[in-house]
Amino acid sequence: EAQVTQNPRYLITVTGKKLTVTCSQNMNHEYMSWYRQDPGLGLRQIYYSMNVEVTDKGDVPEGYKVSRKEKRNFPLILESPSPNQTSLYFCASSFILAPYNEQFFGPGTRLTVL
Amino acid sequence: DAKTTQPTSMDCAEGRAANLPCNHSTISGNEYVYWYRQIHSQGPQYIIHGLKNNETNEMASLIITEDRKSSTLILPHATLRDTAVYYCIVRVAITQGGSEKLVFGKGMKLTVNP
Q1: Contact (CB<8Å) B42/A107
Q2: CA-CA distance, A57 to B57, in Å (whole number)?
Q3: B93 reaches A (C-beta below 8 A)
Q4: pLDDT digits over A26-53, tens only?
Q5: By the CB < 8 Å criterion, does B49 face chain A?
Q6: Mutate to test the interface with A, among B6, B37, B39, B100 (most CBs of A within 10 A)
Q7: Nearest chain B Cα distance for residue A27, angstroms
Q8: What value does the mean pLDDT of chain A take?
Q9: Which terminus of chain A is more solvent-facing, meaning fewer CB atoms within 10 Å of its CB: N or C?
Q10: B91 in A contact zone (CB under 8 Å)
């Protein structure tokens, strides 16, 4: 089954404790992206990657890191989480096929930073 | 960047057609209209997209006005499972590679009532 998976689905952590949220897709997509969703603010893009070893900042990259060593994986790293990073996080992937592509989203990771 | 405006919310009776409007008066000639939906904090799900012509797939129909300044997503026989936040998005292209960032607004909450 074609899908985007994220782990963990739920995480409660404390300020400053490094964490990684994994994202994996099995559709051979070039493009992968991380979004965060907060009440009243909608979905905002954190980072994206157009292919292996190619990453770039989205709208709200501060406090986050990503890597794209393999095509299927795009982990989101919080080196020193803070309470303002408490949010619902989504990973997405798609083919790069202008002018249209359908983005597939993962199930989400709900992160709470105390 | 073209932006979209949608009503905040809408109700629909189960089994009836749900017509979800969207205004995108500043859309440019080569920008597509996409619709996604998000069911209760799950990952957003692609529904349909269009450029000029009306489009139909197994989920919905998309009617785009001739001047392309507005569109309507039609769910022909709404079910309780169609209760979700629906996002009307105009494609925002990243400058190179043909990929794209989806800019999600606040969307419109559709409630399908029994």
Answers
A1: yes
A2: 34
A3: yes
A4: 999 999 999 999 988 888 999 999 899 9
A5: yes
A6: B100
A7: 16
A8: 93
A9: N
A10: yes
Closest-CA distance, A58 to chain B, in angstroms, reads: 9
Q: Tens of pLDDT along A71-90?
A: 999 999 999 999 999 999 99
The type of residue at A62 is: E
- Residues of B24-38 as b/e, b for ≥16 C-beta within 10 angstroms? beebeeebbbbbbbb
What are the tens digits of pLDDT across the range B13-34?
999 999 999 999 998 888 889 9
- Pick the closest to residue A63 from A25, A103, A111, A30 (CA basis): A111
Q: How many C-beta atoms surround the C-beta of residue B49 within 10 A?
A: 19
Find the distance separating the first CA and the last CA of chain B, reported in whole Å: 39
Structure-block tokens of residue B82: 């169609």
Question: Do residues B20 and B72 touch, judged by C-beta distance below 8 A?
Answer: yes
Q: Which residues contact B84 (CB under 8 A, 6 or more apart)?
A: B37, B38, B39, B40, B109, B110
Q: Best of B40, B102, B103, B109 to disrupt the A interface by mutation (most A CBs within 10 Å)?
A: B102
The pLDDT tens digits for B67-93 are: 999 999 999 999 999 999 999 998 765
Q: What is the dihedral of CA A76, A106, A82, A54, to 10 degrees?
A: 30
